[in-house]
């Protein structure tokens, strides 16, 4: 018992010492930073201020430019011709190929509306697949909904149905955000190695199996069982 108590005491002392040491290091670092600021002359501080202002101005200008190109809101474009124009003027574009009769497209709409406001660095569009047969063929879009992820005018990736989103209709906006982050089509601040839908599984979310059908190049709903 005595020996056990002694080792606990020693451990406690070691820990206290560790904490003291690390606190000391932090304090020394802060002191050094404060000293550095104290030693800065007026000119250096002014230059620092100017650099900050320049950076802020640049960010603001970039934001305005994006907004002027239709970023910041989720919009429907009327035709295939508009698609080419929209894609040409923006570096990052997410385009949802939808169909009115497919209920999963409405689920996608809900999430994209939120993400368009949050990620103004990316343009979010929707296009009626039935009105754009040429594009659907060219981009090989067979399943609705499909998101085409376009970078510098080239289609880099697709989100087809809900397969990548945890295979469930009640995936979260965060899950879609993570998937777009994986494609580097938005500035994603979370951890790409930790998909949000993994935590959903713990709560026993019912997962719907999605069927992908692409017979003879015809477009199918991702929720159709047969045709």
TrEMBL record:
UniProt KW Phosphoprotein keyword: yes
Species per Swiss-Prot/TrEMBL record: Formicarius rufipectus
InterPro entries: Thioredoxin-like_sf (IPR036249), Thioredoxin_domain (IPR013766)
Sequence ranges assigned to domain Thioredoxin in this UniProt record: 80-163
Location relative to the cell: Cytoplasm, Cytoskeleton, Microtubule organizing center, Centrosome; Midbody; Nucleus
Function: Significantly diminishes the chaperonin TCP1 complex ATPase activity, thus negatively impacts protein folding, including that of actin or tubulin.
Quaternary structure note: Forms ternary complexes with the chaperonin TCP1 complex, spanning the cylindrical chaperonin cavity and contacting at least 2 subunits.
GO cellular component: centrosome; cytoplasm; midbody; nucleus
Keyword Nucleus: yes
Primary location: cytoplasm
PANTHER family: THIOREDOXIN DOMAIN-CONTAINING PROTEIN 9
Pfam families: Thioredoxin
Keywords associated with the record: Cytoplasm, Cytoskeleton, Nucleus, Phosphoprotein
Protein name (database record): Thioredoxin domain-containing protein 9
